[in-house]
Protein backbone atom coordinates (compact mmCIF):
# COMPACT_ATOMS: atom_id res chain seq x y z
CA UNK A 1 0.00 0.00 0.00
CA UNK A 2 2.85 2.36 0.84
CA UNK A 3 4.42 1.71 -2.57
CA UNK A 4 1.10 2.50 -4.25
CA UNK A 5 0.81 5.83 -2.43
CA UNK A 6 4.40 6.75 -3.30
CA UNK A 7 3.70 5.95 -6.95
CA UNK A 8 0.57 8.13 -6.90
CA UNK A 9 2.48 11.01 -5.31
CA UNK A 10 5.18 10.78 -8.00
CA UNK A 11 2.58 10.74 -10.77
CA UNK A 12 0.76 13.70 -9.23
CA UNK A 13 4.02 15.66 -9.01
CA UNK A 14 4.70 14.93 -12.69
CA UNK A 15 1.20 16.07 -13.66
CA UNK A 16 1.61 19.29 -11.68
CA UNK A 17 4.94 19.99 -13.42
CA UNK A 18 3.41 19.36 -16.83
CA UNK A 19 0.52 21.71 -16.07
CA UNK A 20 2.95 24.44 -14.99
CA UNK A 21 5.00 23.94 -18.16
CA UNK A 22 2.00 24.55 -20.41
CA UNK A 23 2.27 28.24 -19.55
CA UNK A 24 6.02 28.51 -20.13
CA UNK A 25 7.34 29.51 -23.53
CA UNK A 26 11.04 29.28 -22.60
CA UNK A 27 12.11 25.92 -21.21
CA UNK A 28 15.28 24.26 -19.92
CA UNK A 29 16.69 20.79 -20.65
CA UNK A 30 14.82 19.12 -17.81
CA UNK A 31 11.49 20.61 -18.88
CA UNK A 32 11.97 19.68 -22.54
CA UNK A 33 12.91 16.14 -21.51
CA UNK A 34 9.68 15.89 -19.56
CA UNK A 35 7.64 17.40 -22.40
CA UNK A 36 9.06 14.96 -24.96
CA UNK A 37 9.23 12.02 -22.55
CA UNK A 38 12.96 11.63 -23.22
CA UNK A 39 15.91 11.54 -20.86
CA UNK A 40 17.87 14.71 -20.13
CA UNK A 41 20.92 12.97 -21.60
CA UNK A 42 19.03 12.38 -24.86
CA UNK A 43 18.06 16.07 -25.01
CA UNK A 44 21.69 17.08 -24.44
CA UNK A 45 22.77 14.72 -27.22
CA UNK A 46 20.20 16.23 -29.59
CA UNK A 47 21.59 19.67 -28.67
CA UNK A 48 25.20 18.63 -29.22
CA UNK A 49 24.27 17.17 -32.61
CA UNK A 50 22.23 20.31 -33.41
CA UNK A 51 19.18 18.14 -34.06
CA UNK A 52 16.77 20.18 -31.94
CA UNK A 53 16.29 23.97 -32.07
CA UNK A 54 17.78 25.70 -29.03
CA UNK A 55 19.32 28.90 -27.72
CA UNK A 56 22.48 29.22 -25.70
CA UNK A 57 23.29 31.90 -23.16
CA UNK A 58 26.69 31.24 -21.66
CA UNK A 59 26.60 27.61 -20.55
CA UNK A 60 22.80 27.55 -20.26
CA UNK A 61 20.66 25.99 -22.97
CA UNK A 62 17.10 27.19 -23.51
CA UNK A 63 14.30 26.12 -25.83
CA UNK A 64 11.18 27.83 -27.13
CA UNK A 65 8.21 25.60 -26.50
CA UNK A 66 6.63 26.46 -29.87
CA UNK A 67 9.83 25.53 -31.73
CA UNK A 68 10.20 22.25 -29.82
CA UNK A 69 6.59 21.32 -30.58
CA UNK A 70 7.05 22.16 -34.26
CA UNK A 71 10.29 20.12 -34.32
CA UNK A 72 8.53 17.25 -32.56
CA UNK A 73 6.02 16.95 -35.38
CA UNK A 74 8.78 16.65 -37.98
CA UNK A 75 7.95 16.71 -41.65
CA UNK A 76 4.27 16.56 -42.46
CA UNK A 77 3.24 13.80 -44.83
CA UNK A 78 0.62 14.85 -47.38
CA UNK A 79 -2.59 12.84 -47.64
CA UNK A 80 -3.41 10.96 -50.84
CA UNK A 81 -6.02 13.62 -51.69
CA UNK A 82 -3.44 16.38 -51.27
CA UNK A 83 -0.95 14.53 -53.48
CA UNK A 84 -3.60 14.01 -56.19
CA UNK A 85 -4.65 17.66 -55.99
CA UNK A 86 -1.04 18.87 -56.24
CA UNK A 87 -0.43 16.53 -59.18
CA UNK A 88 -3.57 17.77 -60.97
CA UNK A 89 -2.53 21.39 -60.41
CA UNK A 90 0.98 20.66 -61.68
CA UNK A 91 -0.35 18.93 -64.82
CA UNK A 92 -2.85 21.75 -65.46
CA UNK A 93 -0.12 24.40 -65.20
CA UNK A 94 2.27 22.47 -67.46
CA UNK A 95 -0.34 22.13 -70.25
SSE order: HEHHEEHH
Report the radius of gyration as a whole number of Å. Answer: 20 Å
* E-strand count: 3
The side-by-side strand order for the widest beta sheet comes to 1-3-2
Please tell me the overall pLDDT. Answer: 90
How much of the residues is beta strand, in percent? 5-15%
Query: What is the 3D form?
Result: elongated
Could you please describe the fold and organization of this structure?
With 95 residues, the chain is mainly alpha-helical. Helices cover 64% and strands 11% of the residues. It has helices at residues 2-21, 29-36, 40-48, 65-73, 80-94, and strands at 26-27, 55-57, 60-64. The protein has a three-stranded antiparallel sheet with strand order 1-3-2. Strand 2 (55-57) and strand 3 form a beta hairpin. The longest helix has 20 residues, at 2-21. The radius of gyration is 20 Å and the shape is elongated.
Amino acid sequence: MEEFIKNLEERLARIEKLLMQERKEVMNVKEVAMLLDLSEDRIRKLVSEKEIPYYKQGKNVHFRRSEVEKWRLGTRIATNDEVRSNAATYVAIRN
